[in-house]
Design the sequence.
């Protein structure tokens, strides 16, 4: 096993983990289905009470007319952009350079839909109103990701969002929300999901980030939009005969965790402050605006990997399971606070950070 | 409720059903997961023992080098054709006029991949070697569906298949198998799945037809081919973080039913013969070559719907849950024999057909 694998293995075995909702194992499914009657009818090709009720519930929660359940956000978002491009008759959209569609989807948007993205802003900062004002009239749709995951989960001020939304409406540019972590930002904005979504023409949300389901996504908007999305869902091969394993787990964990987002947010701020007390470590954002943040180490991956493993093995506290290098000589990881954090005793956290600090200081002065 | 809905409702309530593997309810999932430990790790984005072991198992069963699990056949088959088109540098493929890609996928192949299909053969008969010989050198791939579902599940002679395969190889045309019901035809051909698949460059199989899983498909072929299919799977939005609800049920029901295909085939022949004894009724094929056949009624849908409902309510035997009209004044349905048939007492079947005959004769002479 190399150092990356050793850290991952140690994290998995750890009795305490700072981030997440626990292991992504089969138990996530079993917990839900153990409580459900086997005679309940499945959804069939997008029809049936099971799927329709959940779609209506989430449409109402997001304040949108209609919603469609998708197996993945990758599929849902490409389709949203395609619909807005077809409506305007232009193949140009705009989004952040670190947008999921740009860096994690093997260029599906370009290869399948021949849509050309304009990259707005620098990759290490948020899109601003000033950036949006540089767009020309050919742009069909602007995608905003809230929070911007790849830069630690940053958010613009709500007033800036409102201004971007107003500008786009005035210029005939559709505004799409990549809300993979939308539920997680409502406590910071002190707004309901519907108040945030009201600024957008279409919205995607995920059920396996803060909500902790197995997989699955909702795409919401006006009925015309969602009806067209169903045709594209079939074209993509996403109109499965039955999606209930994802729908029922999404629904179950939505009910269980939607009320805990403020708690996760508070805990993320508490935890980030502890990291920021360590020499050679800082978080981005410094003060989180959701349940997530990035931890940056001013040391190379090769130095930090064994330290995190040793802290984990000595104290039982898994800080994180992975590190990536972005700039030479530094590395980072990501924490999304979920159910696991509340079950770590405070004394255990203090013990883990005492050791982490000690080891980092030794490495920094080496 | 209209007559179509009434028949469907009566069929669902019926203690006995001639076709299928029982109700498509949540119990299909529960039966599998009740027996599995919750601590088993899930698959993560196509990796992990759970998905890799199943892919290897089915690749071996199909006699192919490699296999990839997909959420749907729609996705898997578009991707297979796309890969063969890219390899040849031509956007032309050939398939039957009633191919799934042509009639059930909202033209995903054309809209997403800009592939142009040449329709071979008339829609009411199989593709022959003579049809294949009319293809020009621009065709990247010929798709054959075995059995041809929309015409009752017909099959060419194995010798004709071999000749088509040899011809395609010689002319540089890739041969793809739509094997949605491949497992179901091995008893008729008296060949293993691998012997049939050896004639094809790529193969798709489904796990919710004869196998009776929830959803899911395998695409198999050479390793180069399957590696490229994974990139397209991500582009389509099918590389879900976890597919285990479909993989584990596919695996469970594969083991449970793969050995029963000869039984289903024998029962389908027995059942088709009983239908063919009814005046005004014939099956297609007359003698089934798999577990499936179509039942044609020489009476309009409006006449047959109430008859089937009455037979169902009076005898407890659900003959079928639906009818479609193709030509005016006639209608048809489809039966795929599965686990349900063996649990219908023979006396019940005789009773149901006595009543069905009586009612059809009355309607025909009315």
Sequence:
């Amino acid at each position: 096993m190399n150092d990356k694998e050793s850290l991952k293995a140690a994290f998995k075995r750890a009795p305490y983990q700072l981030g997440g909702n626990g292991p992504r194992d089969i138990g996530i499914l079993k917990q839900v289905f153990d409580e459900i009657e086997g005679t309940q009818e499945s959804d069939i090709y997008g029809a049936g009470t099971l799927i329709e009720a959940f779609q209506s519930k989430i449409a109402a929660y997001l304040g949108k007319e209609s919603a469609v359940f998708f197996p993945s956000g990758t599929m849902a978002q490409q389709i949203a952009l395609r619909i807005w491009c077809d409506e305007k008759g232009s193949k140009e959209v705009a989004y952040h350079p670190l947008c999921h569609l740009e860096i994690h989807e093997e260029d599906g948007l370009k290869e399948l839909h021949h849509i050309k993205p304009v990259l707005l802003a620098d990759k290490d900062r948020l899109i601003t109103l000033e950036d949006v004002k540089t767009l020309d009239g050919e742009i069909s749709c602007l995608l905003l990701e809230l929070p911007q995951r790849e830069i630690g989960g940053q958010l613009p001020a709500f007033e800036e969002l409102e201004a971007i939304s107003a500008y786009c409406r005035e210029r005939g540019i559709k505004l799409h929300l990549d809300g993979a972590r939308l539920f997680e930002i409502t406590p910071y904005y002190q707004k309901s999901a519907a108040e945030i979504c009201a600024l957008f023409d279409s919205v995607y949300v995920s059920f396996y980030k803060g909500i902790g389901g197995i997989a699955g996504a909702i795409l919401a908007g006006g009925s015309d939009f969602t009806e067209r999305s169903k045709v594209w869902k079939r074209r993509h091969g996403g109109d499965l005969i039955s999606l209930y394993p994802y729908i029922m787990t999404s629904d179950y964990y939505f009910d269980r965790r939607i009320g805990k987002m403020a708690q996760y947010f508070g805990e993320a701020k508490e935890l980030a402050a502890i990291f920021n007390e360590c020499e050679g470590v800082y978080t981005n954002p410094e003060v989180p605006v959701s349940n997530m943040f990035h931890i940056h180490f001013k040391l190379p991956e090769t130095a930090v990997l064994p330290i995190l493993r040793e802290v984990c093995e000595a104290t039982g506290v898994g800080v994180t399971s992975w590190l990536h290098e972005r700039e030479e000589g530094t590395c980072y990881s990501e924490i999304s606070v979920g159910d696991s954090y509340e079950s770590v005793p405070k004394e255990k956290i203090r013990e883990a950070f005492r050791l982490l600090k000690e080891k980092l200081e030794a490495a920094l002065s080496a």
About this structure: The domain at 3-22+260-364 of chain B is CATH 3.90.1150.10 (Aspartate Aminotransferase, domain 1). The two ends of chain B are 25 Å apart (CA to CA). Chain B is about 45% helix and 15% strand. Chain B has two domains: 3-22+260-364, 43-241.
